[in-house]
Each structure stands twice: as C-alpha cells, then as structure tokens.
C-alpha cells in the first residue's frame, strides 16, 4: 500500500513538472509572439516614418527672386555683369523668371523650393508638333556642308535683332559683305517669331525698312547698332532719311500686323513668343528653327561665326571664286551680344 502511495505521488509530481514545463512553454511562446508583434509594429512604424517625406519649404515669389538673383550673379556671370530680375510668376510647380542681362532678355525657371534652376525650358507640346512636322517633311531642311554652286551666290542670314548669337554672327559677316561686295546677293532676314519683347519687333521693322529704302547704308547702321544697341543715334550716324524709314515702318507694321499680333497673345508661338511674319514664308521654306541661321544658295550652311570662316563658307558656293575670297579676315569669333570683344566659338542659338 505504501508503495502504491509513493508511486501515485511520484506520478503526480511528474505530471506537475510536465504541467509546469508546458505552462512555461506556453508563456514563452506567448511572449515571443507578443514581442514579435511589438517588433513588427515598431518596424512598420519606422518604415512609415522613413517613407513619409518631410514637408518642403516653398519660397514666396520675392524670396525666389532674391535667391535667383544671388545665384546667377555669383555663379553664372562674370563680376562685371549683373542680372536684373524683371518679373517672377508661378507656372505650375515652378517659377518662371524673366531676366535682363546687358539689355538681353531671357526666361529661366526655378523650382518653388529654390533648389533647382533651369536656364531655359522646353515646351513639350511645341516640340512634339515640330517633330511631327519634320517627319511629315515640312521642316526637314538640315544644314548642308556641301553647298550648291552659282556664279553669284544668294546669301540670306536669319536672326533675331536682340539675340546675342544673332548679333555675334552679324559682327562676323559684316566684313565678309564688305569684302565680297556685289559679288554676292546678301539679304538680312528675321525669324518668324521674337524672343526679346516689343523692342525686338520694332528694331526688326526698322532694319527691314533700312534694307528696303536705303540698302547701301544698312552696313553702317548695323556697325553702330551692334556696338551700342541705340537705334535712334545709329539712324542719325548712318545719315538715314528718318521720315522715309518711319513711313515704311508704319506701312510694314500694318501690312504684317506686327503690333496688332503683339497685342493679341493668342497669336504667340507656344504662348510666349510674338510672331514676326515679314519673312514667314522663307522661314517655312528653309526650315528656320532659331537665330542665327545662314542660308546660301537655298541651303542652310554649317559655319563658325568668325569672318574668316564665313568667307570660306560663302566662297565655297561660287562656281569660280573671285580674288576677294583669298582675303585674310579675322579668325577670332566675335562676342555674343552688343559691344566689342572676342569669344571662343559658340554654336548656341536663340530658339523656342
């Protein structure tokens, strides 16, 4: 009997031990699951915290203006030049900034947080239209390295009067025109849209009328204008008949609706650039995309902008080049914009 009692208590003790072990196991399991839940919950919170972007501090227009002005002056311009911020307006997620640098107007962009600056923008819809037009063969003219030859080359230079790269090539081509004289037929023409405001439209009408009414004085006028950008004083210094020029301007302005279209922004290219339709058909004919573009014997010509290179390019279009083609002209590329100076050769242009 005693043996059975001891056996019973041994059994109970064993069971109790198993129950305790089992209970401890259950508690450990619950603890592990609870702990894992806390860890998982904590990791999710950390993940959410990581993915949550901090609220960006957006600049007010005046703050953006000051930041852009400081950035341009200190990082993009030489010490002697300063930018003038003419206006700053919101365009979607960025600020559109109108700049004035030495009388030249530009449009640049900056993100509203002031962290990204874009010197120019691309109008995607306009680019798509131009690409489609190219594919359709409407503006598929490309600059030609091998120009067709004639006895008297036709030379047409398309620019915008206040485009710094247009004025650059003008400085280079004037000595060529003077050297070749009546050996070529030279015509100054303009792009069918303007990028530098009303002053550019007015100046282009002036130059069109000088070329039409007193062509032999155009070079002298341009020499003055390319240095000073002062049209009024250059008209006087070139001894032009201002009454004749003014009457021509009024007639041409009315004929091509230059001012009328400037005042109607619905006519502007890409909503930003007023039209100048005096040479619109020629722009379409040659596929002119921006300023400058040199057309020789009906083909866009690839060339540098110094006088020596321009002389070589134009002389390559003669059947029999005259002796003037051997003249030694400057091989230094003029500076962009108005005034004196030289520059490393640039192939930049003003285009939309």
Structure commentary:
It is a single chain. The protein starts with a helix and ends with a strand. Helix 4 (164-180) packs across helix 11 and helix 6 runs antiparallel to helix 7. A hairpin with a 2-residue loop joins strand 1 (83-91) and strand 2 (94-101). The protein has 11 helices and 12 strands. The strands form 4 sheets. A 4-stranded antiparallel β-sheet has the order 1-2-3-4, with helices on one face. Strands 6-5-8-9 form a 4-stranded mixed β-sheet. Strands 7-12 form a two-stranded antiparallel sheet. It has 3 domains: 1-52; 61-122, Nuclear Transport Factor 2, Chain: A; 145-351, Glutaredoxin, CATH 3.40.30. With 352 residues, it is α+β, with helices and mostly antiparallel strands. The protein has helices at 2-51, 61-75, 124-135, 164-180, 198-213, 218-228, 231-237, 242-256, 258-262, 280-286, 307-315, and strands at residues 83-91, 94-101, 104-111, 117-118, 154-159, 185-190, 290-291, 293-296, 299-300, 333-334, 342-343, 350-351.
Helix/sheet category: alpha+beta
Helix coverage percent: 40-55%
Biggest β-sheet: strands ordered side by side in the sheet: 1-2-3-4
Instruction: Report how far the terminal alpha carbons are from each other.
Output: 111 Å
* Biggest β-sheet description: 4 strands, antiparallel
Shape field: globular
Radius of gyration: 36 Å
Number of strands: 12
Order of helices and strands: HHEEEEHEHEHHHHHHEEEHEEE
Number of distinct helices:
11
The chain-level mean pLDDT equals 82
Quote the beta fraction: 15-25%
